Fold:
Amino acid sequence: MAFLNSFQFNDFLDSLVSLVAAFVLGTMIGAERQYRQRGGGLRTHVLVAVGAATFVDIGMHLNGRAGATQIIAYVVSGVGFLGAGVIMKQGSNVWGLNTAATLWCSAAVGACAGADLAFEAIMLTAFVLAGNTLLRPLVNAINRRPIDQGTTEAIYEVRITTTLDHLDESRDLLREQLESASYPVQDIEVIEREQGDAELVATLLGTAADPQELDDIVSRLERSPLVDKAGWSLRTIE
Structure:
């Protein structure tokens, strides 16, 4: 019956208000994520916010603000591992970064609620919702713009297709053509295919190149009897 002796109505009411605030604010953030069908939906964000609020509230009751500070440090690192679970990577494509960041913010909202910083929790929720909704038109406008090869940090790759019998000669030709045009090569990857040919992918050093110069290099490579096909591509740095 020790819990009856330690029960204080004012403390209980304070904890209840903190958890209700975390629940409501986490619901607002999670509802937006659920509406957009993201990996971390409504229930996940609510649980993260309520859990963070509970841990911080326990620390507050056991050891005051010092206890809350210690708990918050563990909440931040713990939610980092949780956020990593919603991030997926396939090749150069990465999904889930925004969802992971939103989960991190939900934990911050819960931590504010647990530390009796209700207005700060409400303000943070407003900023999170604004970031996920009001900034979408700006993000879409930026994404619709064509890539500017002169200003975008990117990785340039020059590809040629050749037969396995001419692999070494084609590699030397590719390196020679690029370096003669002052484009040093970082690496040349060989991709063998089932048809009996191979693709050589040369990755260039640096983050800027002249598209016209690369077109000229590709044209010279295609005129070589060693090369069946040539081309170049650009991908942005992750």
